[in-house]
Design brief:
The structure is a homodimer of 324-residue chains. The first copy, chain A, has 324 residues and is an alpha/beta fold. Chain A contains eleven helices and 14 strands. Chain A has a six-stranded mixed sheet, with helices on both faces. Chain A has a five-stranded mixed sheet with strand order 12-11-10-13-14, with helices on both faces. Chains A and B meet through strand 12, helix 5, helix 7, helix 8 and helix 9 of A and strand 12, helix 5, helix 7, helix 8 and helix 9 of B.
Chain lengths: 324, 324
């Protein structure tokens, strides 16, 4: 356990349905990590501390020393989380998030620092909020700065998911973001609308979504109300032009295509910027789908290396002077 | 029962969840009517004939004479209905539908004539289908012709509902139509997505949707991906700008607003036509909402008198020579 006695920080990404924690050394290197499904929705009786202690046990055969600071980001700071924290308005960077940490002492005497979420345009017609994604973007920005990559000008990050986020970074600060319910819309239309009825019962969206996804993308780029175009996921099947096993991929392409079409039309981070590339923060099949979709729009999209949430947590902790 | 001995036609509107039937005289006047929830989904063991006979009993204390012709339209001709009939391609009018009737003799010897649905662009990227709505529009056109109203040029009919239909009529023929899943999208987002979570548990969309509906309409007219704008139904509530009891009306306005924005942008029936008005075929609160929404776009929308499905069925039966 010599290595773990060197732990300088416990970084925690605590979401609605997932939990990840890392023991980091003073340089941010991972000593040990743990992950599980103990998202905030599955914490019993609101006993977040017990859930945390149980996870810390998995990080070490003994226990993590009581004086090692902890930092946590994600939905853990939402109304249904451990400590609800107010959103931080834009623009913001690692230093701003460090300055807005909410410290909390557990009954065992551990000191946990909560990273709050970000808000945008709260007095406007389209206010927006996020909790957790800001930390992933901050991690990516820190990673780029450490790698001495170009960080001036505008950058666009896209974080696919149930609620995908488009995040614009200008000169190292998050200056705008927008939520699009693409993943959730896909799920509810597939599971609860007429569009799911003709789908193969066992049909899953595959690793290579193929031609049906591309067709959906083309439909997503088209004109017309989204809910008129979405009906084509049924009518094409009725017309015999789409097979039951293709409907889900088609619908996925249509919704992602509409998200990207509209996002680009609004110029989220791309309008006039020197950097015309998009960075996707995500993994697996969904990140690949978004990369393919951006390519269909003629835009190069790179998928960021994994671990940006951990990188962001370390960066914020460093800025807050928690380490060493 | 003297009056009913004069029945010249039994007209039936047989949908997925509803059933209406009218005994009509040779001039199309209603002698008696019945309605119920015996839509095709609730017909037991596929025994449509038993369901029909039971309804006919309600039309008369005795039975409707076996030789009185019947005509039926709606989802009864779909795959899950009584007799599946092929869609009729556009353009079409009452005479075309009359020429495409599918006659069926029941085991008791009744002759029932099924009106088939319409299809559009079946080889294209956005094929579309409807069953039942074509008959309502035909009824409206016949009513206008009988009233010697202007029927030349283009007309636009909008039929709000689970799957709303926009139907363009040119010189008395249906020349284009489009389905928009507005009603279904509203229901699945309210009942199954995060947007429903902050709604009042008992909150219903009211008879006077009021200011929240108007705000939703404005958001529906805006830029951006629909699923990005839809998230504002949550974020405005988080920002304290929308009350829990207002979220459903706001979301309703947003989806209807997007439908109308996109429909008008595509010029469905309005582009360059002499007649710049829209006729809404529907009833109650939903028809009123659409009328208010069109007004917000600066377009006069009249709600058609009730009974257009019956009127259409009579018109088609007349053209088919079933009467007298």
């Amino acid at each position: 356990m010599t290595a773990l006695s060197a732990a300088a920080l416990i970084a925690i990404d605590w979401g609605t349905t997932s939990f990840r924690a890392w023991a980091l050394d003073a340089q941010g290197q991972v000593l040990r990590s743990t992950s599980g499904d103990q998202g905030i929705l599955s914490v019993r009786d609101g006993d977040f501390e017990a859930s945390l202690e149980q996870a810390l046990t998995r990080l070490d055969d003994r226990t993590i020393a009581i004086q090692v600071p902890l930092i946590a980001a994600g939905m853990i700071t939402s109304r249904n989380g451990w400590v609800e924290t107010p959103y931080l308005p834009l623009p913001l960077d690692a230093a701003a998030l460090a300055g807005a940490l909410s410290p909390h002492q557990t009954s065992r005497g551990r000191r946990i620092h909560f990273v709050t979420g970000a808000s945008s345009d709260m007095d406007g017609d389209f206010p927006d909020v996020m909790r957790g994604e800001e930390t992933e973007v901050i991690g990516q920005v820190a990673s780029d700065q450490a790698g001495q990559r170009q960080t001036a000008g505008q950058r666009l990050f896209v974080l696919p998911g149930t609620h995908s986020k488009w995040v614009r970074v200008t000169a190292g600060k998050i200056t705008a973001f927008q939520t699009c319910m693409t993943g959730e819309a896909f799920a509810v239309l597939r599971d609860h609308s007429i569009l799911g009825r003709l789908m193969d019962a066992g049909a899953q969206t595959g690793a290579d979504p193929g031609a049906a996804f591309e067709r959906g993308l083309a439909a997503g780029r088209g004109e017309g109300a989204l809910m008129a175009r979405a009906f084509s996921a049924r009518s094409l099947a009725l017309a015999g032009s789409l097979a039951p096993g293709e409907i889900a991929d088609y619908l996925s392409g249509l919704l992602i295509g509409d998200e990207i079409r509209a996002g680009l039309a609004q110029g989220m981070g791309l309008a006039g910027g020197a950097d015309q590339a998009v960075t996707i923060i995500g993994r697996g099949d969904l990140a690949e789908r978004y990369a393919r979709a951006f390519a269909a729009f003629g835009i190069a999209a790179a998928i960021a290396p994994q671990g940006m949430n951990r990188r962001g947590l370390f960066e914020i902790a460093t800025k807050a002077g928690l380490i060493g």
